[in-house]
Amino acid sequence: MKLLPTLSFCLLVCTVRAVEVDDLLDRLDTALTLAAFQDNLRARLSGTIDLEAYHFQQPAPGLIDSKIDNLFNPRLTLFLDAQLGSKVYFFAQVRLDRGFDPSNHSAQIRLDEYALRITPWEDGRFTLQAGKFATVIGNWIPRHLSWDNPFINAPLIYENVTPIQDKSAPASPLYFIYGLFYNQKYAFNPVIWGPSYASGVSVSGRLGQFDYAAEVKNASLSSRPESWNATEIGFDNPTVSARIGFRPNQMWNFGFSASDGAYFRPEAMRTLPYGSDIGDYHERVLGQDISFAWHHLLRSAFRSPGRRRRRHICLLFRSEIQIHSAVFRRGPLEPAILRRCARRIWRKYSLGQ
User: Which residues of the chain have pLDDT under 50?
Assistant: First the structure.
């Protein structure tokens, strides 16, 4: 008989503490929000704390950079959002972690994103953005942050390395086969390196059931994080990317993406054939994405006196599909054997064989 009052008391205490925590968070959110000029200027500071733990066998999967099998990767992310009226918006993202990709390195702080966005019309038909921000390619990028990402890490296309390197050109066709075994994994590049926070300018908008986005940036989609700053890689060989989307209703979202740009870094110049330039070797990406979302999955049962039990079932089915294809155009060596070797090692490596 004493168990029920004890449980009731514990439940009451937990409820009170939860209400106190909610009040504390509300007060903190209010303290981190600034308004001025009759609320025409508003700024808000927010953030997330991620605690990631990995256990794997060597070599580490994806873009994880670690020589140990157990990795703890905490991350503090701070967001600054500022808005002037209804047409001017600025955002920035700062991270404190052990590297852009999970690693066992020491802590570092980075300014990953910053951009100014101008929307002249309220219907969203046109938006101009400039700064350092995520690419417009694909449908996973809008939800790549940990709070929105349904995955623990990025999909295959965004973090599985290929036999392509951006710091040096291959010396022979066999390099595409044996290079992965003789070099560090971080010497190679995926098709798209995560959200690709390169620097540049973009335009986007929505017209009825269609939406569009295009960007000009300083580095290719496969470029590594240290290439994303405009002070590191200039706009001598810009990358142009675009996406066209079609949303017939709330359930379906179709998109087609394309990108073209030079992928070699400046230090690769000494390894290129005589008379060629970094701008002669491009990464071309063609991508298709399909998104489908439908309702919820719930099950409930009610029993009424003198009646049979009645069941009410609601369904949830959510599926996200992304299909990408990529072509690295005009490598320094172009024989058919090179293309066959690259295709063979890409197929084996991407399947984990």
Answer: 1, 309-322, 324-325, 328, 330-353
Q: Provide the domain count of the chain.
A: 2
Q: DSSP per residue over 102-167, as a string?
A: -BSSPPEEEEEEEEEEE--STT-S-EEEEEE---SSSSSGGG-STTT-SSSS--HHHH---S-BSS
Distance of alpha carbon 133 from alpha carbon 195, whole angstroms: 8
- Asked if residue 12 is part of any domain, the answer here is no
pLDDT digits (tens, 9 = 90+) for 174-183: 777 776 666 7
**What does the alpha-carbon distance between residue 121 and residue 242 come to, in Å, rounded to a whole number?**
21
Residue 93 shares a structural domain with residue 179? no
Q: At 14, which helix (H) or strand (E)?
A: helix 3-31
The conformational region for residue 58 under phi > 0 = left, psi -120 to 50 = alpha, else beta, is beta
Cα gap 100→112, rounded to integer Å: 9
| Separation of alpha carbons 246 and 227, rounded Å | 32
**pLDDT tens per residue, range 122-159:** 888 999 999 999 999 988 898 888 888 877 788 888 98
